[in-house]
Design a protein that fits this description.
The complex is a heterodimer of chains A (216) and B (292).
Chain A: H1 7-26, H2 36-52, H3 60-83, H4 93-110, H5 122-135, H6 138-149, H7 175-178, E1 188-193, E2 196-201, E3 206-211
Antiparallel strand pairs in A: 1-2, 2-3
Helix pairs in contact in A: 3-4
Chain B: H1 2-24, E1 43-48, H2 56-71, E2 76-79, H3 90-98, H4 102-106, E3 110-113, E4 137-141, E5 144-148, H5 156-168, E6 173-178, H6 193-205, E7 210-213, E8 219-222, E9 229-233, E10 250-254, E11 259-266, E12 269-276, E13 281-288
Parallel strand pairs in B: 1-2, 2-3, 5-6, 6-7, 7-9
Antiparallel strand pairs in B: 1-11, 4-5, 8-9, 8-10, 11-12, 12-13
The chains are: A mainly alpha (216), B alpha/beta (292).
Amino acid sequence: MKQRPNKNILSTYKLALIGTASLLFSLSPSGPQTSPVFAQQASTTETQARSTHPPGVLADRDLSEFNERVKDYVKLRERLADKADKPSDESKPAEIEAYQIAFAEQIKVARAGARAGDIFTSQIAKQVRQIIKDEFKGESLKELRALAQEPNPNGVALRVNAVYPDRKEIVEMPPALLLKLPALPKSLRYQLLGRHMLLMDREARLIIDYLPNVLP
Amino acid sequence: MQRANITVVVLLSILAIIQSAYSQGADNQETLRITLPNKKDSVHFAVIGDTGSGTDAQRQLAAILERSRSLFPFDFVLLLGDNLYGSEDAKDYTNKFEVPYKALLDANVKFYAALGNHDRPTQRYYKLFNMDGKEYYSFKRNNVRFFALNSNYMDKTQLKWLEDELANSGSDWKICFFHHPLYSSGKQHGSNEGLQKVLEPLFVKHSVTIVFAGHEHFYERIKPQKGVYHFISGAGGKLRPGDVRATKLTEKAYDQDLNFMLVEVVGEELHFQAISRTGMTIDAGVISRPSR
């Protein structure tokens, strides 16, 4: 009957192998390099770190990148708002309307080359879809779909720098979703439309980015 | 003798017809009666929602609102959102708000607006909505603090603001008003469970007694929910007849004509009256402030 190797001996062999490999690599003339074993270990560690993040919860790095892009947009709009004669709380309707039109135009010109994905990173897009999938199932998903259809998406151009039409209502964002999404500055808002999620400049009523087909 | 009897009968009949015509009004209006105490130093206000249609019906209701003010002088009006439907050019502010409510505006009645799903956020800059440039805000009258919320976008920032404001308010009465009702028996929209989950705990924790909301185009008084009294007053300019049928939530519901509310806070009591476009009282009552 064949005997199985002792478990302790096997563990010792593994340790010896790791120790030898690390010695060899530390002596390597081309400088410290990540050994395949170490790389594999590092990669495993990173993967473990990522997988310990619950699905739908954003990793710090991904959130930070999204927030930086949002901040850049806000800085741009603040520069433009200063030039656009922002209304006060005593403004007349004609002044409010003129401001909105002028401000939207300025943003469109300043962001003439902007495309979808300039603000919503691919990681954010993935997480938003996961959040919706986790938060809305069955009846609640059905209600969310119905809500997103309320403004009748026909007639809204799904493109960056499109103006959200005047006569289209803006549906409320479900608080359960808002509380999970990255917080936005007051000048911006998320907006559901059909199966898509828009990122909108509130005052200019402009689509500044969008995620297509986030609703399953 | 017989002739005299006939004359008397005819005269009495004529008198009856005249009296009937007077009480009904020339166009089938009820005689407007105020059921509120109408005390001198109490807080008097009106509540109206979903007004901004610019229609004749809106103007007719506004006329009754103005008439009611001659009997019950209120100082301000809560607008529950959808203040302007459709476009929001300068002429829309005129036709859908300034013209219908001209008499009240000329009498320096203040309108405090909340934003509805048909409203642009830039309405907050409009002087006559008294929003102080904010999408959500609060103000006080005597022992009552009012909190206007933006229920279109109930994010963490707004919730934090609300919690801080409620916690720091020393007022006896806390009244919240916004567009989307937490509870509703309407077929078109119904109750908003998402908003219930985030707002109701705050209302209960901080002793909010009354909530006014619009969005549904009818009137409904909801049975108290966890000690909070909810009213829907969303037929100020648009009506959805037949949209509400009484459910276990309903204390009173009405969807046959446009309507508004008059409210008076006297000490520990809040008196309310809902009035239709023909001047008919569709609901009235009193709520005692619960001690918590």
